[in-house]
Amino acid sequence: ALPVVAIVGRPNVGKSTLVNRIARKNEAIVHEMRGVTRDRSYHEADWNGVHFMLIDTGGIEMGDEDAFQKSIREQAFAGANEADVVIFLVDGRTGATPDDIEVARVLRKSGKPVLLTVNKLDNPDKEDEALWEFYSLGLGDPRPISASHGHGTGDLLDEVVEEL
Ligand code: GDP
Ligand code: MG
Asked: Which of 12, 21, 103 for mutating ligand 1's site (highest number of atoms within 8 Å of CB)?
């Protein structure tokens, strides 16, 4: 079986945009599962000759506040469980939210390698300040990327394949 890389994070941080950037372009979704905590899509990807499966842990259903928190926690847990490496994606424009802190806690406990990645940093000259507060998540150095522009995604993939 191929090694598995899961992209975990709150809704709207840019998980699907990142998947679209790094998955094989003309590859249809390999497999989809539906359900509040199992809603995810699988995509084949490769980087410098290393072939892997990418999971987009999308589609967390909006419920009441408690159900929402719980589903985020379960998504993070399920994603990390299946993965060899986790890309934990956060939004550099919103800063670290309580949901990010919750997901970080779950991921730290998973024991899996976690690459904390800060998205939506579209201007590489201005990223330092936005990065700083994510050290508080306790997952080491945050990596700046812009999934929509492509800045930083090559460096991220270099790190991903090093962990596989
Ligand atoms: P998901 O819910 O985590 O899968 O997030 P999406 O990939 O659907 O993205 C949510 C929104 O953020 C969309 O409007 C994207 O266009 C936007 N977005 C994603 N990546 C970036 C980025 O690098 N920069 C900016 N400015 N917007 C982004
Ligand atoms: Mg999505």
From this structure: 12
